[in-house]
Each structure stands twice: as structure tokens, then as C-alpha cells.
Amino acid sequence: MTYYIYHIPNKKVGVTRDLYKRVTQQQGYAEDEYEVLFEGEDIKEISRLEIELQKSYGYPVETTPYEDLFKPKNMRINATEQTSTFPCPLSKLKGNLMDNQGYKWTTPQGYEFILNASSIKWIVDNAITSRFNSERCFIYNKAFYEFEQSQFKTKEEQTCCRSEYEPFDCIRCWADERGIYDKGNVKTQFTKLIEETGELAKAILKEDEVEFVDAIGDCIVVLTNLAHLGGYSIEECIEAAWIQIANRKGKMQNGTFVKDDTFSKVLATKSKTL
User: Fold this and answer.
1) pTM value?
2) For the chain, give me the number of helices (H) and strands (E)?
3) pLDDT tens string 55-83
4) How far apart are CA 243 and CA 213, in angstroms?
5) DSSP secondary structure string, 207-234?
6) CATH entry, 155-232, from 3.30.250.10, 3.40.50.720, 3.30.420.340, 1.10.287.1080
7) What is the CA radius of gyration of the chain?
8) 82 conformational bin, left if phi > 0, alpha if psi -120 to 50, beta if neither
9) For 210-235, what is each residue's pLDDT tens digit?
10) SS3 6
């Protein structure tokens, strides 16, 4: 996750994960009306720098450090031997779980659970309203544990993968075992890719973080299979793309990186029309 410290001259210094949404859409400033002072993935360092920069520019200083906005709120999941109960109705479950990503709890029989993108999706899909209190909902621990086990198989259990966990090898193994390579083709996989990108678009429009992660993962799986059916590995495709873009120069335009030669063509076209 990349965090950006932005500066709106004579206004403020702030932090965001999405410059376009936070600065342009929400606050109304175009790209040439603000500057990015720093970017990085260490939220603690970003939080510290934001406060230092606010002081150095003479702006009001945030009373709550940026990193504290994302700390789990400890929703106090009540775990018994059979179930884990959440202190909210089904209608608000997803939001509460998202606010508590990273939260861990242990059941009496020793099951250890953590809230992340995949576990949240499973919980939302399988939670049941409590018969005793409609403002609470629950899941069955054993079913959740079985799901967790299927997601985090040991390296030895990954019979098709190499001794080191290599996701693309496992994807190809999974696809081969299910006959995708024997009975599928590039056309069927391309159709599947369109379907998955549609799901991704839906997740983006709804600002659904769980579905966003899930859809990107699905797209990568389909692209891996599409490459294989086309006679290439996904690694070869990524390497070929990287060679093309590694030294590419350009600039950001309306939230998109546009390479230099594209600008030249656009300018040339405009000149001809004038």
C-alpha cells in the first residue's frame, strides 16, 4: 500500500492513498494545484512526516496521527466453542469487519482467526443473524476453520507446486487439474477475463475493498491461464512488458501516465487541425 503526502499551497498538508479521489474529487483541486511531497509504504514514517511538514509550513497539525485512523477498533468478537458472534447486525457486518482488519481472536478449542480480505468475504457470505438478538450475527467456528485451512495449506500439501511457494506455478497446477488447459482456449479465457474485469469495475464503483482484492486476484488467475493457453508463461509476459516500460518517460495526465511519444502524436494532431 502506497501513501502520499500532498501539499495544497497556502491550504494544508495531508495524507491519502488515492490522490485523485481525496484531493481532486473530494476537495476540488486539479493536478496542477497541488504537489506530492513524499510517498512511501511505511505508514508510521508517513504519519511522522505529515506532522513535521504541517509544522514546517505553519498549518494546523492533525490531532490524530494518520496511522491511528487505521488501527483496529476491537469489536470484541464473542467466541464460544461452537460459534463466533459479532456485535452488529448483518446489514452492518461488512463495514465493521473492514474497520477491524488485522483483528485476531482465539476460540476455546484453540482456533486462531484473523480478519483479512479473504476471511472477511467468507464471514460476510456465511454469517447468520442470532435468534436471540437481531442486532448480532455469528458464524460457525469449525466451518470457518476449514475455510482457513483450505486457504493456508502447508507447502507440503501443495502437491503440484515446487518446494518454494510460487503462486503462478500453483495457479497453473490448479487449472491443469481442472481441465482448463485441455478443454479451454484463449477465447474462453478472454471471455472470462472480461467477466472478471466487470466484477473489478463494480467493486471500484462501489468502493468495496474486499471485492476489489478478490477481483484483482481473479483477473491474475485468468491472465495466467490465458498466457499459458497462448503458448507463453505469465512470467514471460510480465518480463516483456517490464522491458518495454522500464525506461519509459512521460507525465501524469488526468490520473493516467501518458508516455512522451503519445504526447508528441497528440500535439502533432492538434497542430494539423489548427
Assistant:
1) 0.44
2) 11, 11
3) 999 999 887 788 776 655 567 899 999 99
4) 27
5) T-HHHHHHHHHHHHHHHHHHHHHTTS-H
6) 1.10.287.1080
7) 24
8) alpha
9) 888 889 999 999 999 999 999 989 99
10) strand
